[in-house]
Amino acid sequence: MTGRTAEPATEAADDDGGELLAGTRGTSRRGLRRLLLVGTAAVLVLGGCGFLHAAHRLNSAPSAENRALTDTEATARVAGEVGNALARVFSYTPDGTAAAERSARTVLDGRAARQYDVLFDRVRGDVAEQRVTLSTRAVRTGVVELDGDRARLLVFLDQTSRRGTDAATTAPAQLTVTARLRDDRWRIVDITAR
Amino acid sequence: MRRARILTGAGLVLALGFCGTGAWTYAQARTDDTLAYGRERDEALADGRAAVAVLTTLDASTRQRAERGVRAWRAVSTGPLREELGRAGAESGASARGTVTEAAVTALDPRTGTAKLIATVRVEVTSAGSSRPAVDRKRLEAVLARTGEAEWKVRALSAVPLTAAEEGEDR
C-alpha cells in the first residue's frame, strides 16, 4: 500500500507541471480502492444479513415451534396425562358417578368442563336407574401440536358400556382434544368428536 | 490518512466477522437434528394425510375412472400395500370419497425413514344406483415409508380395531 502511494509523489517531484495531474490520479486510484473496500464490506454485511435471515426462518418455522415428537419426554407426558384423564372422566359405575365428576373437576377446564357438565346432567338419572356402567380406554394417542403450554391431540377411545345385566357392548370414539398446561398439569379445555 | 486506513480495515474485519457469524448461525440451524426432525415430521404428516385421503377415495362410476383411481392408489403406496393394490381389479360399482378430518404422527424414525400415523376419515359412499351418499367415519392407522424421492408413501393401512374389554375393567 505504501509503495503505491509513494508513486504519484515521485512523479510529482519529477515534473512540477504534472503535480495537479498526478494528484488527481492518486486520488482517483485511492477513490477506486475505497469504493472497492466499501463494496466488499457492503457485500459481506448483506451476506451476513442473508444468512441470519435464513437461519431465523429455519428456527422460527412452524415445524420448529411444534415440539410434538421432537421433545420425546414432553410428548409422552401430555399423551399419557390426556389419555388417563379421558379414561377417568368417561368411566363410571351406577353408584360411582361422583368419582368421575371429581376427576372431571381436576382435569377439565373451560369449554370442555361446561360440555361435560351438560352431558352429565343428562345421563346422571339414567346411569343410576338403568344401572349403566361405562369404561373407557385410550387405544391410540397422537400429539398433533405441542407448543409450550398448549397441545392438540387426536385420541382413539374404546368405550365399553353395560346396562344392568345385559351383555357389554364396545363402541369406538375419536376425539380431538385441546389441552393447556396449568400449574404443571395438563388440563383438557376442548373436546371435539371426529 | 493512516487513521482512515485503520478505520477501513476495522470496518472490513467487522463486516467479515458479521458475515462469518451469520454463516455459522445458518449452518447450525441447517444441521440441527431437532429442526430436521420437526421438518421430517411435518412432511410425513402432510404426505400421509394426502395419501390416506387418496386411498379412501374411489370414483367407480365408470370402469375407466375406477382404473384411474386404482392407479392413484398405487402412486401413493409402496411395498406390500402397493403389491396388494396391483392385484386389485378395477370394476365400476360403489364410489367412495374420503376426507381426513384429523391426523397425527405417532412415531418417526428419520434414520430408517419410517413413520406411523393415525387418522380419522369421513367416508361418503355412494352405491351405483342411489344418489344419496352414506356417511361413515373410520379410524385408521398407517405405516409410512420415505421413498427415494424424499416422499412419504403408505406401506400399510388398517382400521384400528376395537379391543375386547379386559376382565374386571367393565365391572
UniProtKB/TrEMBL annotation, chain A:
Residues 1-11 have a biased composition (Low complexity). Its main location: membrane. The chain crosses the membrane at residues 35-55. Keywords: Membrane, Transmembrane, Transmembrane helix. Residues 1-24 are annotated as: Disordered. It is found in: Membrane. InterPro entries: NTF2-like_dom_sf (IPR032710). GO terms for cellular component: membrane. This is Mce-associated membrane protein. It comes from Streptomyces calvus.
From TrEMBL, chain B:
One of its GO terms (cellular component) is membrane. It comes from the Bacteria. This is Mce-associated membrane protein. Keywords: Membrane, Signal. It is found in: Membrane. It comes from Streptomyces calvus. The keyword Membrane applies. The keyword Disulfide bond does not apply. Residues 1-29 form the signal peptide.
